[in-house]
Amino acid sequence: MPHPVGYFRPIVEFNLSFSRHPIFKDAHSDLNTIYADALPFHQELYVDPADESEVKPDRDLIPLLRQKIAEQLIKPYAIDTPTLAPITAVINQAALQVQCGLVRRRLTKDSLTRALEIALANHNDFIQIEIGLSHVYLDTSAGPLNYLDWTKITTTRTANLPPANPASAQEIALA
Q: How far apart, in whole angstroms, are the C-alpha atoms of residue 76 and residue 63?
């Protein structure tokens, strides 16, 4: 059943953060310190941004959200990353999850809509979107990792990088 015009308008923030990395246990904390923030112009995730009653379909929602994360939340602060390409490569392969309260699901139109409904029912004005890190390799071969340089954060294993842990059963279920 369609929601009335402006139904989701009370949700004023889509907060983004990184989930734990399977090997580098503090990577998410460091990345969140630099990049975690509210998504600017979250109204663009709706079919009609002025209406805010229906989330875009998956084919539009997911690429738009990935683009906004890379361009608007990460690149402005990734001052040691010369281009957007390495950031986009990592974000485009990241598992995205939406969380409201204790409910966490793989991000889709339906799961985002449900999270918005739960937020409203619980009188919350925000939801949380997590960016998965289990698929990335962090290159520390040249010393401590510089989280401002995304050329050292990759989805491709090189000889000097430890293997990434396989995805957990929970991550597989959410993907």
A: 19
Question: Count of alpha carbons within 13 Å of 100, Cβ hemisphere only?
Answer: 21
Which pTM value belongs to this model?
0.84
Cβ 54 vs Cβ 46: under 8 Å? yes
Q: Which pLDDT score is estimated for 156?
A: 82
Is the four-CA dihedral 92, 94, 131, 156 of positive or negative sign? negative
Residues 6+ apart with CB under 8 A from 136: 21, 90, 94, 153, 154, 155, 164
Distances (CA, A) of 68 to 13, 27, 52, 64, 143: 14, 21, 18, 6, 30
> Residue 9: which pLDDT band, with cuts at 50, 70 and 90?
confident
